[in-house]
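## retry 2 of 3
previous attempt timed out at serialization; input unchanged, resubmitting
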Amino acid sequence: MSAFGLLWANLHRRPVRTYLTLLSVLVAFLLFTLLRTIAVWFEGAGYDAASNRLVVTAKYSIIDLLPIRHADAIRAVDGVEAVTHQTWFGGNYQDPRNFFPKYPVEPRAWFDMNPEFVIDPEHVEAFESIRTGAVVPVSLMERYGWKIGDIIPIEADIYPMRDGNRLWQFDLVGSYTMDSDMEPSLFLFHYDYFDKARSHSTGTVGWFTVRIADPEQAAEVASAIDGLFENSLNPVKTATEDEFGRAFAAQLGNVGLMATGILGAVFFTILLLTANTMAQALRERVPELAVLKTLGFSDAWVAMLVLGESVLLCVLGGLLGIGLTVLLAPAIDAVIASTGFGAFVLYWPAVGAGVGVAVLLGLLVGWPPARLANRLTIADALRRS
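## retry succeeded, writing output
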């Protein structure tokens, strides 16, 4: 029998115990890969931010609205090339579980500002000319079976209409895709229609997006924009898209620290569990180790056999957990994309790190029993049996 075959046979001596331990290691490495990816995703705000765009929000809270007239003052700042805006609409399509972000926007200006969103020029024309028009990503059309010309009803939660009716109806006039790995999910409709039809907060927007001429001057332009409204009733805070995304994610807390804490607790538990498994296996096989040494196998070979079992168990569980994460990544990406907060892209360095951690865990768990096996004398082993 080969050395690997002997390792495999030894692991199956107590199959229930082995597979329960293997399942625990699998779950630990599934969490490791997922949590590290999620932490990196939050640190990067889940999307590739443009270096030449700034985001202007209310200074004290992102939910505060800003006067739309701010756009003219921002447009006059040196270094600013273009300005547009978005507003969070909320609302539900048929069922609260059918969630996707909905923004009233300036049709042509919004797509000019965001060239990564690819749309047919004819659809932009229709979007701009039809007051109740809306455009959606192709993926959203496929999900709900929509087609151009459909009327899409949205039940409002924040913005009822002037007559008290909460059912907004939009004419689907176009679709778009995205020139990146992300799957877009934004439902976009005409700001002018929204502003004239809503019952409150007219003349306001949620935030501005600003395109600047020189990304190297982003800090200076942001400071100039903030200075314009410093003493007004509606002060603002300007940041690059990357900074804005990170700040938005930070509202949920220090995700990286939380992930590290969870992983620390998980791996400490797994360390104890697998160490106990290997210690029990060693106690049960003391007579067999004595026989192996009697037959001429060296102390080092017997020790490596015990250590190899530990490494094999941990590496196999780690690979299964990491592999399961790879399989789950597309489903997780689809869920996150439906929220509009970006794309879930598996963090491959975490995959590589996970394999290394699995090997290290196996060595840590296997070293004490391997050391005992190395020191075990034939007489002592037979006496214990």
